[in-house]
Amino acid sequence: MEVIKALKDLEPLKSSVLTVGNYDGIHLGHQDVINHIVEFGKKNAIPSCVITFDPNPYYILRNEGSPINIQSTESKLKALEKMGVDKVLVIPFTEKFSKVTAADFADEIISKTFNPKLIAVGENHYFGFKKEGNLDFLVKFCLDKNIDLFTPEIKKTDDRIISSTEIRMLIRDGKLDIVPSLLGRFYGFKTRVVHGSHRGKSLNYPTANFVAINKHQVLPQDGVYFSRVTLEGEKYFGMCNIGFRPTFNEKKFVMEVHILSNKFSDLYDKNFYIEFLLKIRDEKKFDNKETLVKQIEKDKEVCIKLIDSSKENYEI
């Protein structure tokens, strides 16, 4: 797969099949669109192409710092390559670019650069200044340019619309067990281990403190999670705590994981991937250290039962 990170580096194509969007998470709804362009491209011997943006326009248009990314750009590109996409244009989304009109974007980038035979987008898709490039705009544009348009029906599961917005809400609400039915996989991200206060070791439950490598990564609600760590190609189940350690009156936000195995190597100074499989309980303040340890022991029992009784449920 060819990745182009500046429009000037992309030679105009004789023809293509194209989709445009943030594609954050590449959930099951996104996959319908992307699979269609890949199949169409192979059938017609033309390149399947994706136009996406970095950073997410949210950070430029809303000028807010709260993280919302389901996946990093690197993770997105790997997923697109795995799905068989031929070319991806990653447009740097700046304040200046945000002022480009839908008409200019459609004429100068979509038409003149990609010359698509077919465009595929979701029904709720839009682009351009003030979201002018909605589906109605695109229908007219495609009719004028003699371009086929593919818009699959909005996908639902259990009466939930499959969307990046819905997935973010589930993550923030701690409903990580529901996420795979929309995302197609358990939610997780790459991490970097950082040195902590060694609080877990003092409780006889050593943990690795970590931060998300992607600074814009959306984080699960505070609490204790049944989790899975992938380190050096091996997978290990674990217990992850997210929050502020209220029992010890700490003020610093911490993410830490205790691995439920003696077979893993030292996590320090190594990146690993963590998945959040199920929320076990909310974070709470205990009266003392001993009461906390008893609760951690109960949490561990819950996790071990999950491993033993339903391991096949965590093979996504």
Question: What is this structure's SSE topology?
Answer:
Elements: E1 2-4, E2 16-20, H1 28-44, E3 48-54, H2 58-61, H3 73-83, E4 87-92, H4 102-114, E5 116-120, H5 135-145, E6 148-150, E7 156-157, E8 160-161, H6 164-172, H7 180-183, E9 187-194, H8 199-202, E10 208-212, E11 223-231, E12 234-243, E13 254-259, E14 271-281, H9 289-310
Report on this structure.
There is one protein chain. The chain is of the alpha/beta class and 316 residues long. The chain folds into 2 domains: 2-154, Rossmann fold, CATH 3.40.50.620; 180-314, Riboflavin kinase-like (Elongation Factor Tu (Ef-tu), domain 3, Beta Barrel), CATH 2.40.30. It has 9 helices and 14 strands. The chain has a 6-stranded parallel beta sheet, sandwiched between helices. It has a 6-stranded antiparallel barrel with strand order 9-10-13-12-11-14. A two-stranded antiparallel ribbon has the order 7-8. Strand 11 and strand 12 form a beta hairpin. The radius of gyration is 22 Å and the shape is elongated.
Chain-averaged pLDDT: 90
**Poorly predicted ranges:** none
Shape: elongated
Distance between the termini: 25 Å
In CATH terms, what is the architecture of the largest domain? 3-Layer(aba) Sandwich
CATH topology (level 3) name of the largest domain = Rossmann fold
Q: Class of the largest domain, according to the CATH hierarchy?
A: Alpha Beta
Summarize the helix and strand pattern as letters. EEHEHHEHEHEEEHHEHEEEEEH
Number of domains: 2
How many DSSP helices?
A: 9
Helix percent band = 25-40%
